[in-house]
Each structure stands twice: as structure tokens, then as C-alpha cells.
Amino acid sequence: RAENTARIVQQYSQQLLDMPEEAGLAWDELIRIVGASGEFASRDDAASEQGVLNYLLAEPTSSVSVAWSLRCARDNLRNTRDLLPMEAWESANELHLFAVQALARAVGSDSRFEVLDEVIRRCQQLDGVFDGTMSHDTPFRFLRLGQHLERADMTSRMVDVAAAYIRNNENSVRRHGSSLWSNVLKSVSGLQMYRQYRQAQVNGRDVVDFLVLDTSFPRAIARCLARARYNTALLPRPAETLTAIDRAGDALPAIPAGYADAAFVTRELDTLQKHFTQVHRAIADTWFLPSVAS
């Protein structure tokens, strides 16, 4: 989650630089992407650049901030050090200490891209430590299950918010739509892979199709669900979670030819996110909540 949030903030910041003021982009769109509008509205923070970025990057009590996610990750690794490679604990601890010092600076524009690049790079390094030095047994399968569900959910949110923007700003999209969708792809490091998938100019219909239905790109929703299912099947008592994942897969929207209507995309992805919630509940009920005797 820390990596995904850092990616979103980084690319949205770049998008605001690329798009003219008349495009109507606002910082509070980032709050909508992470699904925290209600929580943010209850705070005193204004929906300004500084308020939003502090909430998403440096605020230690914000449940969607990079700082909060890295602290939780460090705490989780500390509590499970007997199951995980020592290098993973060391990397997570070093990343957390770096973030404590650097994320407040990232709220300001001068060093934002540099700090977020470093957070993303170190998250990828930690992922490589898990993949290359950890036995691929039950703890590893739980790590991968969580990773793929998080990726699927965040990709759906980024596409959903882009579609909502299109629905409300049709005139601007006609002039700047290619830049908008290019930044959506960049937020998941998918622009180059999209070019291999579709040789044509970047356009909304093909980007949505790629990020929702592609079965090869690691951050496409269909691919994430397939990998989540694979790892779940290798865990004990997988039936309830497999059923929930299959229902989410069945809910993947088939994008109509000629580019899907933005309202259609928003409606379908909202439904998909509800299915992700059901997967989460199945995981919690099966493995993490104490059973209640009937």
C-alpha cells in the first residue's frame, strides 16, 4: 500500500504539472482515489495541496498514508521475524526510518519526486528480498495474496477516478485525454507495457481494457485476481476465499467497443470494489478471526 500510494501521489503531481489549469484537476481527487473522503472530511485539514499531501504521505495517524503503512509493515515484520528473512526486517526498518525523516519534506514540492522515487525503489527492493530469499510456503502465500488484492483494488480506484473526471469534464478531455490516460498508465508503471499491448495512440477505451482485463501485466486487475487465486489455492481451507475471488473475477467489466461510457466504467468498478471487500472479509473470517462456537 505504501508503494501504491507513493506512485499515485507522484503521478498525480506530474499530471497537475502537465495539464492546464482549465482542466479542473484538484488535490482532493487524491482523497477520492484512496477511498478516504469521509475520514478526511472529518478532519480540520483543508483540501489544499499541503493538507492533502500531508494526509497521504506524512500523517502518522492517517490510515491511508505512506507513513502509516510503512510503520504497520515494520511492526508486522518485527512480530513475525521468525518466519521471514532477516534481510526483510532490516530493509523494512531502514525504509521506515528513512520515511520518518523524508516524507515531511515530500509534502513540499522541491523534493517530492526524489523522496517518492526512493520509497518506491525500497519497496521494490523489499519485495525482491521476499521473492528471492523466503521459502515459498504458507507465509509467503499470504504475503502474495495480500499484495495482489491491494494492487487490484488500487488499480480499480485509479481507473475509476479517471472515468469520473471524464464524465464531469468532457470538453477538457477532448483536448487533454491522451495526457490524462498516459498519467494513469505511468502511475502503475504501465505505459511501456501498454505500448506493447496496443500500438495505437493512448486512448481511454484501450487503457481501461488493458488495466482491467489484461492477463499478463502484473498490475492489471485480471492478472492480480488470477495470482490471488493461485496463492489462495495453496493455503489451508481456501474454499470461501476462492469463491469470493471467483465472484470478483466474474464481475470484471467487458469494455464495449468504441470506448466505454465513463458512467459505465464507474458503475462497474464500484461493483468490483465491493467484491474486493467480500474477498477481504472471507480472508479475515477464514484465517484471522477467532472461530465462534455454535
Question: What topology emerges from the helices and strands here?
Answer:
Layout: H1 2-18, H2 28-33, H3 37-41, H4 49-58, H5 66-79, H6 86-107, H7 112-133, H8 138-168, H9 170-187, H10 191-197, H11 204-213, H12 221-233, H13 239-250, H14 262-288
Helix pairs in contact: 1-5, 1-7, 1-9, 4-6, 5-6, 6-7, 8-9, 8-12, 8-14, 12-13, 13-14
Concise account of the structure shown:
The protein has 294 residues and is mainly alpha-helical. The chain is built from 14 helices and no strands.
Explained architecture:
- By secondary structure, this protein is an all-alpha fold.
- 73% of the residues lie in helices and 0% in strands.
- It is built from 14 helices and no strands.
- The protein has helices spanning 2-18, 28-33, 37-41, 49-58, 66-79, 86-107, 112-133, 138-168, 170-187, 191-197, 204-213, 221-233, 239-250, 262-288.
- It starts with a helix and ends in a 6-residue tail after the last helix.
Number of extended strands: 0
Biggest sheet features: none
Oligomeric state as shown: single chain
Helix content: over 70%
From the spread of the alpha carbons, the general shape counts as globular
> How many helices in DSSP terms?
14
Low-confidence stretches: none
In whole angstroms, the N-to-C terminal distance is 36 Å
Mean pLDDT: 87
